[in-house]
């Protein structure tokens, strides 16, 4: 009997470890596609209408919203904590150096969509900012030519936002493949997921100081990173001359910057990845086959991207114990 008891304990413990390994984000089980069907049945159309209004004002809405979602999920989970404004007593996530380049149009999109949702009496104070950000992200992707997908909903908003929580949580433009894989794996995302999410740079932009190291004084032998297409490097230097205002923005996709497509991967094949962390996806033999596949097969890229961004949206989902629904997205209740 003692042996049976020990066997049962070991079996249960082994099963527990297995579940933890294969399902590192168990709270994702709380999410479902029809979460607001009876709570706020028109929420997705309300959010989409606001996104469309914002997009008519500026295309920056697209990359700004996507990047906001990514930066939010990678720090404390998908809980809209990145939107919180700092106060005299608390410096929030958005004021971390890695978040200072987030475009205001992403924040504005979520805040306006939240106001529109809450203007509906049936929906007031029933839809989280985290879910609105997830829906808005899906909408800007679809409206710019990317795939449309059924977004999982049911997130709650985080109860805190601290600048220190951002430290070491976001990928840097100088990262190599091992660093990228390690960072993404910490959130249950594979190398394939990482390469797919990097494809969002097809509509992104960056500032000169984020890639200057690749086009100026790379080494004693060359002024530029040898993995950069030489004509592309010359073009970048013309747009970002020495001592230029580092806040000048450059499209990450020089070919089709206003369309969510697979051109990002074609650019990598030509040495036109803006960051080291972009171009490494082609120069490293472990990731190069995936880049080549998606450069030639846009549908395969879109399918992989939907899988990856759905998984990203499950990271760190808050429950009633550690979350709520904010009345205003940029202020804690």
UniProtKB/TrEMBL annotation:
Q: Where does substrate bind?
A: 171
- The EC designation for this entry is 1.11.1.7
Q: Any signal peptide, and if so, which residues? A: 1-29
Q: Which GO terms describe its biological process?
A: hydrogen peroxide catabolic process; response to oxidative stress
Q: Which residues bind Ca(2+) 2?
A: 202, 253, 261
Q: Which family does it belong to?
A: Belongs to the peroxidase family. Classical plant (class III) peroxidase subfamily. Belongs to the peroxidase family. Ascorbate peroxidase subfamily.
Q: What is this protein called?
A: Peroxidase
């Amino acid at each position: 009997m003692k042996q049976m008891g020990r066997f049962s304990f070991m079996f249960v413990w082994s099963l527990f470890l297995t579940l933890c390994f294969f399902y590192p984000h168990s709270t994702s089980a709380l999410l479902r596609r029809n979460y607001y069907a009876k709570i706020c049945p028109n929420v997705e159309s309300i959010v989409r209408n606001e996104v469309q209004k914002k997009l008519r004002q500026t295309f920056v809405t697209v990359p700004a919203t996507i990047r906001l979602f990514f930066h939010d999920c990678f720090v404390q989970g998908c809980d809209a904590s990145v939107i919180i404004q700092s106060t005299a007593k608390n410096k929030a996530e958005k004021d971390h150096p890695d978040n200072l380049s987030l475009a205001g149009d992403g924040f504005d999109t979520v805040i306006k969509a939240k106001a529109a949702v809450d203007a509906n009496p049936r929906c007031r104070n029933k839809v989280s900012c985290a879910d609105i950000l997830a829906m808005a992200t899906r909408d800007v992707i679809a409206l710019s030519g990317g795939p449309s997908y059924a977004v999982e909903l049911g997130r709650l908003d985080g109860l805190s936002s601290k600048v220190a929580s951002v430290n070491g949580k976001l990928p840097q433009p100088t990262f190599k493949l091992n660093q990228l894989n390690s960072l993404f794996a910490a959130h249950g995302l594979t190398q394939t997921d990482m390469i797919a999410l990097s494809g969002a740079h097809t509509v992104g932009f960056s500032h000169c100081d984020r890639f200057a190291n690749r086009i100026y004084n790379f080494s004693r032998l060359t002024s530029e990173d040898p993995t950069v297409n030489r004509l592309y490097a010359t073009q970048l230097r013309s747009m970002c001359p020495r001592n230029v205002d580092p806040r000048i923005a450059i499209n990450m996709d020089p070919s089709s910057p206003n369309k969510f497509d697979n051109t990002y991967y074609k650019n990598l094949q030509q040495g036109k990845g803006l960051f080291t962390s972009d171009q490494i996806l082609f120069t490293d033999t472990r990731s190069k086959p995936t880049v080549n596949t998606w450069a030639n097969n846009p549908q395969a890229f879109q399918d992989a991207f939907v899988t990856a961004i759905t998984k990203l949206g499950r990271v760190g989902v808050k429950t009633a114990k550690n979350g709520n629904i904010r009345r205003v997205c940029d202020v804690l209740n």
